[in-house]
């Protein structure tokens, strides 16, 4: 089986990603994964699918507080520990082309943000929406539970703003979101980001590019070893 034939006629290598838009490690992990795919010689034969996961499903709907305040209150993280963690992630993010501004990040219930991702998926803009929401959270300091903000971000990507407003108002895609979360539970996923390659290999956390490349190479070798 040649690479060219595989790329055009066979099923792509599928990477299923569970993430949440208020997870800084998810933002980093996704960005590094994309770099790994770009470096992968068969990157055109890779499909990435995103799945909903809520790190804080019990966070009150309609409320919003500074993420640092939330971490300090709920995880008893001292200011020095927070600063050190942020500095480390900021450096990693800079290397990946990301601009973390943790002092502006806001903690919210992310259910409605996941609705917008599913709306974008139906229009073929799933990855673009995921990345825009990450940037909105970690660079722009936007409230990702605010329906107006979410509708504006959808419109920014060329989606129908009225449809976004309607989806948010009607609680659309609830079944899809719950199915994603149920699948994560079935896999035993308790934290994100979590990446599943070809339904065979799992990677947890924001790993270095070499780790993603190794699994991509392994998945490709598995495909090449299959009978034509």
Walkthrough of the structure:
The structure is a single chain. This protein is 55% helix and 11% strand. The protein is built from 10 helices and 6 strands; from the N terminus they run αβαββααβαααααββα. The chain starts with a helix and ends with a helix.
Walk me through the topology:
Elements: H1 3-9, E1 13-19, H2 24-39, E2 46-52, E3 65-66, H3 67-75, H4 79-95, E4 106-107, H5 111-122, H6 126-138, H7 147-156, H8 161-170, H9 174-187, E5 194-197, E6 201-204, H10 209-225
Parallel strand pairs: 1-2
Antiparallel strand pairs: 1-5, 3-4, 5-6
Helix pairs in contact: 2-10, 5-6, 5-7, 7-8
Model regions low in confidence, pLDDT < 50 over at least 5 residues: 1-9
Distance between the termini: 6 Å
Helical percent range? 40-55%
Instruction: Characterize the biggest β-sheet.
Output: 4 strands, mixed
Strand line-up of the largest beta sheet = 2-1-5-6
Class based on secondary structure composition and strand pairing: alpha+beta
SSE order, as H and E? HEHEEHHEHHHHHEEH
Overall average pLDDT: 94
Indicate the overall shape: globular
- How many strand elements? 6
Q: Give the helix tally.
A: 10
Radius of gyration: 18 Å
Roughly what fraction of the amino acids lie in strands? Answer: 5-15%
């Amino acid at each position: 089986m040649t690479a060219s034939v595989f790329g055009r006629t066979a099923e792509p290598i599928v990477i299923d990603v569970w993430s949440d838009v208020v997870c800084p490690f998810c933002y980093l992990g996704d960005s590094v994964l994309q770099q790994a795919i770009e470096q992968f010689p068969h990157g055109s034969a890779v499909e990435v699918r995103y799945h909903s996961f809520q790190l804080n499903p019990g966070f009150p709907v309609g409320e919003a507080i500074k993420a640092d305040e939330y971490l300090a209150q709920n995880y008893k993280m001292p200011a020095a520990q927070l600063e050190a963690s942020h500095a480390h992630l900021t450096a990693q993010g800079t290397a990946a082309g990301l601009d973390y501004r943790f002092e502006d990040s806001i903690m919210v219930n992310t259910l409605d943000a996941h609705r917008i991702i599913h709306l974008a998926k139906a229009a073929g803009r799933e990855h673009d929406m995921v990345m825009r929401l990450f940037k909105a959270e970690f660079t722009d300091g936007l409230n990702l539970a605010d329906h107006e903000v979410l509708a504006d971000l959808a419109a920014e990507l060329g989606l129908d703003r009225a449809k976004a407003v309607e989806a948010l108002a009607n609680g659309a895609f609830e079944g899809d979101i719950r199915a994603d979360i149920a699948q994560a539970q079935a896999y035993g996923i308790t934290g994100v980001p979590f990446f599943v390659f070809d339904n065979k290999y799992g990677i947890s956390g924001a790993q270095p590019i070499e780790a993603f490349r190794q699994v991509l190479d392994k998945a490709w070798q598995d495909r090449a070893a299959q009978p034509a």
